[in-house]
Amino acid sequence: MTQGPPPSPAIARCGGGISPEKPLVTRRFKPSLAYTSNFRHRLTCDKAVEVVGAKPTDNKLYMADHVLSEDATQEDVFTTVGAPAVDALVAGYNGSVIVYGQVGSGKTYTMHVECVVSFVEIHNEKIWDLLDVRAVDPKNIREDTRLNQVFVQDLVQVPVSSAADAIDWLEKGMKARKVTAPTARSVASSRGHGVFSIKLRQQLSDSSCRKTVLHCVDLAGSDKNLALYPSTAAKDLKEVATYIYSLVDVEAI
After folding, report:
1. What confidence tens digit (pLDDT) does each residue in 167-208 have?
2. Does 105 belong to an annotated binding site?
């Protein structure tokens, strides 16, 4: 960022908030290139930026709720803009994150992230892909020795572009859960573990790629009293015993 003379007192005193009824504005500056403009800028406080022209009369002051410098990372953008939007969503408020600017200003870079979801059910030590409508057999577990990771072979991973898309696939997967049975405490009790996964792929400023995943796990009920299960069929009791045993590791945490 190009340094300039000290800001005027009027600029330095900026910092008042904007009415919550108005859209919140965050200005992010792309690293400048020498041949792209005759203008330079300086941050006067965390809510204002002054664009300095060739002549003093060309100078312009722009206000915002937040200003992110050229050194700001994608994590800084999420902390400033994305996280509050997500918090508001969880609190029951609709919201939009909109990027606006000239061609080549970095709008797509700021918003670029790939998101996919998957949904499996683990039942009787087998893995069923709830988003694979053509599957008739359970999926296999494989190990990538190069990355030291295990994965589900041929797992369906669906690209999503919004929370609504993700929820839609979650609901489709819930309907595909095949194994439910009544107990003394529930009319329909799943005897398998459901794992809904949200995977993000982010392109970072240093051209590297970051991959992260959030697993949302719906475990089968942890009741160990077999008297709660009306069915006494041998295969049903074996099924119950299998998933109860699978919860032992969870209880040890």
Report:
1. 999 999 998 886 555 554 444 556 678 899 999 887 766 667
2. yes
